[in-house]
Amino acid sequence: MLMNFESEAEFPAELDRIYKITDGVIRSLIIRKPEGMEIPVAKEEPKAEVEEAPAVEEAPVEEAPAVEEAPAEEAAE
């Protein structure tokens, strides 16, 4: 990923510190662009339209028959 930004002089050091302690960042390199150097900006390609999936009808919910428990046997004395 390439990011271009303008900031105060202290910010790159703070950004580097944060990147070092962030688990999701494996490697980073912060460089200062020489004055007057232009960096080309990539054009975004138009996003393809996503087709909607056809609606799925839900099946009717049927209740399960109730299960009766057998009477507990009394302990013999």
- Report the end-to-end length measured between terminal Cα atoms: 80 Å
Task: Estimate percent helicity.
Answer: 10-25%
Strand content: under 5%
N-to-C SSE string, H for helix and E for strand: H
Uncertain segments: none
- The backbone outline, from C-alpha atoms, is elongated
Overall pLDDT, averaged? 78
- Biggest sheet record: none
Number of strands: 0
Content-based structural category: little secondary structure
Radius of gyration: 32 Å
The helix tally amounts to: 1
Describe the structure.
By secondary structure, the chain is mostly loops. The chain is 14% helix and 0% strand. It has one helix at residues 11-21. The longest helix has 11 residues, at 11-21. It is elongated. The protein starts with 10 loop residues before the first helix and ends in a 56-residue tail after the last helix. The relative contact order is 0.09.
How would you summarize what this structure contains?
This protein has one helix at 11-21. With 77 residues, the chain is largely without helices or strands.
What secondary-structure arrangement, pairings included, does this model have?
Layout: H1 11-21
Give a quick set of tags describing it.
little secondary structure; 77 residues
